[in-house]
Amino acid sequence: GPVRVLVLGAALRAESLNVRLASLTARLLVEAGAEVDLAHMRDFDMPLYDGDAEAAHGLPQGALALFDRLNRAEAFVISSPEYNASVPGVLKNAIDWVSRIRPQPFKTKHALLVSASPSLIGGNRGLWTLRIPLEHLGTRVYPDMFSLPEAHHGFTKDGELAHPGAQERLAETVAGFLHLVEADTRYICLRRRWYEF
Ligand code: FNR
Predict the structure, then answer these.
(1) Is there an atom of ligand 1 within 6 Å of 82 CB?
(2) Which of 137, 165, 159, 131 is nearest to 70 (CA)?
(3) Which of 126, 131, 175, 177 has the highest Cβ tally under 10 A?
(4) Closest C-alpha to 170, from 143, 149, 145
(5) Which residue of 119, 125, 155 sits with most ligand 1 atoms within 8 Å of its CB, as the best mutation to test the pocket?
(6) What is the average pLDDT across 152-157?
(7) Ligand 1 centroid, distance to 86 Cα (angstroms)
(8) 115 CB under 6 A from ligand 1?
């Protein structure tokens, strides 16, 4: 069957540029043949990580819900803003909570990172810092990333990218990522079958 990809718009704002980029990325993934689960960070309400709260109550509902959605996917995409050239606290907090669950769901999954920002850089510095916790957790972070600069002017009414070159570049990045995930997923299935013999 098709590869399942969780696409997470990693900002809380209803009008978030990164949520819009997540929606477009999801649409491009579907066009490329993936099965997509589109999620918004607002779906995963959780308190700040606190070891005492964890010891007393375990994981909060929001973290368990994100864990579950990650688990049902073979790969994931994060569309995240850049805050002060780094990862927004809300996203880092969610990664920290979910990383406490075993089996830890970031491990061995493929991930594509994208960002949108009103700035001229497009949030790319934040994505480089997002690689650090994900790679630490064993995620195979796709080497290529996509960052949309001047994103407040970047979308058409239909949610496509206004700059045709940018739209083409995003579609190519998505297709390349999906190709890798599909090849690797087939390989994993084959390997499992060999082990069964
Ligand atoms: C920002 N913003 C920002 N933008 C950027 O390109 N580089 C940066 O370092 C920062 N830093 C930053 C810090 C904080 C605390 C805020 C609130 C904002 C601007 C940011 O890109 C802009 O607000 C985006 O619109 C946020 O993403 P969403 O919510 O539109 O997805």
Answers:
(1) yes
(2) 137
(3) 177
(4) 145
(5) 119
(6) 98
(7) 10
(8) no
Task: For residues 131 and 174, give the distance between their C-alpha atoms in angstroms, rounded to a whole number.
Answer: 18
Provide the CATH number for the domain formed by 4-196 in this structure. 3.40.50.360
Model confidence at 197: pLDDT above 60? no
How many alpha carbons fall within 13 Å on the CB side of residue 105? 21
**Cβ 116 vs Cβ 123: under 8 Å:** yes
The minimum-distance atom of ligand 1 relative to the CA of 10 is 31
**Exposure class string for 81-104: b at 16+ Cβ within 10 A, else e:** bbbeeebbebbbbbbebbbebeee
Residue 2 CB–ligand 1 contact under 6 Å = no
Helix 124-136 and helix 89-98, axial crossing angle in degrees, nearest 10: 10
Tokens 């957790």 — which residue?
Answer: 137
What are the residue ranges spanned by the domains of the chain?
Answer: 4-196
User: What is the phi/psi pair of residue 5, to 5°?
Assistant: -125, 125
Over residues 148-176, the mean pLDDT reads: 98
83 lines ligand 1 (CB under 6 A): yes
- pTM score: 0.96
User: Would you state the structure tokens that stand for residue 93, as one six-digit string?
Assistant: 């907090």
